[in-house]
Write a structure and sequence with these properties.
Serine Threonine Protein Phosphatase 5, Tetratricopeptide repeat, about 450 residues, 2 strands, 22 helices
């Protein structure tokens, strides 16, 4: 993500125009003495006469005419002269007025270079350096992501801004934020993360943070993003806790805070639950997926009773999706709290909602089997097989049916299941052994019946 604002706002552009315009005013004497060979710091007669016309164009905001006339005059004056520096910064003003930021760079570089070489504008050079860094940053942010143009201009923006920071007597938080944001964007290039540059950005941002008693929101947001990219999620969470405290209605901050705790796995479960609950009290993060996340966190924390209550309420009031997996999870919660009867009732309710889902019948059958309720288990196992299961589950269910048929002396059910298992997997030793056991039981039954008939 780009942290450089784009495009320049009207207010920022106006202040930049004012700064450039101030340089066009009559120049007072400077404390520094220019080198002996330096051009004079005064306009030639020709440019002096044109200045009044140019000023009028500025007042009337006739930017096209201003650009055209300054370009024409520039072609007639000495390149290394005060005329060139003066006209170049006027041309910059016209180009900024048209929001031609790229076009404004070359004449601004010319004006600044001449001024720094010959001390034309004195301390006003700082304003030009600041403006130039802003323009480089603007071009970079508007360039194609991960392009050479973007990378080059971010580098120029930071180098230029560094000059300003090193020379200015009054550093300020905005400049520090600008420096940190440029470095942040430089660090994220071509889907790679340069941690060394990110750490440099962190230093610049923290320096700006300390410049204000009450730092701006953007500093915490930037430091949060930097920590996130560095993989320092506890630090990310710290900054986000400050942000949600100051801006409790900002949903994205709550979501990012939740994510910062979620990626910490078991260490972050309690904090993640707490974050979701705090956000939901404010009416945020209360969509169905958020509600499911909350239940899932309680499940992962093995708080099955709480998870069951949340599932039960959510499935009935519509704040959770009424999906088969959710009903199964609710049943699992009841199993974990040793409430098998409620687990069975939950699965039976799910069967009504999803009548073709054979796995639900299989789960009910398993629960009845584990509770030694073999008659009921047999009913649901047969139902599951009839509805159709995948091969491993089908074999499992058929094995149960065969066993239950033997146990309950329902040998017809047992034979049907054993024969079905052989059809499904002719090479299965388990199925063959089961079939043999069933056949033996049937032979014994038939022999007993025959003996009883003869006796009579």
């Amino acid at each position: 993500m780009s942290l450089f604002s784009s495009p320049l706002s009207r207010g920022v552009r106006s202040s930049l125009l004012a700064a450039v315009l101030a340089l066009a005013a009559p120049l007072a004497s400077f404390a520094q003495t220019p080198p002996p060979a330096a051009p004079k710091r005064e306009l030639t007669e020709k440019v002096h006469q044109a200045a009044q016309v140019l000023q009028k164009l500025i007042d009337e905001q006739k930017w096209d005419e201003l650009i055209a006339q300054t370009t024409t005059i520039l072609a007639t004056v000495e390149p290394a002269s005060f005329d060139t520096a003066y006209l170049s910064q006027l041309k910059v003003q016209g180009l900024l007025g048209k929001a031609d930021y790229k076009g404004a760079i070359a004449p601004l570089e010319t004006a600044l270079s001449l001024s720094e070489r010959y001390n034309f504008f004195g301390d006003k050079d700082l304003e030009l350096i600041w403006l130039l860094s802003q323009l480089y940053g603007q071009i970079a942010s508007a360039a194609e992501p991960n392009s050479a143009v973007q990378r080059e201009n971010y580098a120029k923006a930071y180098t230029t801004l560094r000059r300003w920071l090193d020379r200015t007597p009054k550093p300020n938080p905005d400049a520090q934020y600008f420096a940190a944001s440029i470095l942040y964007n430089q660090a994220l290039y071509d889907n790679k993360v340069d941690k060394a540059i990110l750490q440099q950005a962190q230093v610049e941002a923290e320096k700006g943070l300390r410049m204000s008693i009450k730092p701006k929101e953007q500093f915490y947001a930037l430091l949060m993003a930097i920590s996130q990219q560095l993989g320092d999620f506890p630090k990310t969470a710290e900054y986000l806790e400050l942000l949600v405290k100051e801006y409790p209605k900002n949903k994205s901050y709550w979501q990012n805070l939740l994510n910062a705790y979620l990626v910490q796995d078991t260490k972050g479960y309690v904090s993640a639950i707490n974050t979701l609950e705090r956000a939901q009290k404010l009416g945020l993060l209360n969509e169905k997926r958020d509600n499911f996340t909350l239940v899932g966190l309680h499940l992962n924390a093995q708080e099955y009773a709480i998870a069951a209550d949340l599932f039960e309420a959510g499935l009935r009031n519509g704040t959770l999706e009424s999906e088969q997996k959710n009903w199964e999870l609710l049943a699992t919660c009841y199993q974990q709290t040793r409430k098998d009867a409620k687990a069975i009732a939950t699965l039976k309710e799910a069967i009504k909602l999803f009548p073709k889902a054979a796995t639900l019948d299989l789960q009910v059958g398993n629960l009845y089997y584990m509770g030694d309720k073999y008659e009921d288990a047999l009913v649901y196992m047969k139902s599951a097989v009839t509805k159709g299961l995948d091969k491993p589950q089908q074999l499992q269910a058929l094995s149960y049916i065969a066993y239950l048929g033997l146990e309950l002396k329902k040998l017809d059910d047992a034979k049907w299941a054993a024969d079905k298992a052989i059809e499904l997997d002719p090479n299965s030793k388990g199925a063959k052994d089961l079939q043999a056991a069933v056949n033996t039981a049937i032979e014994e039954r038939n022999a007993q019946l025959k003996a009883t008939t003869v006796t009579r």
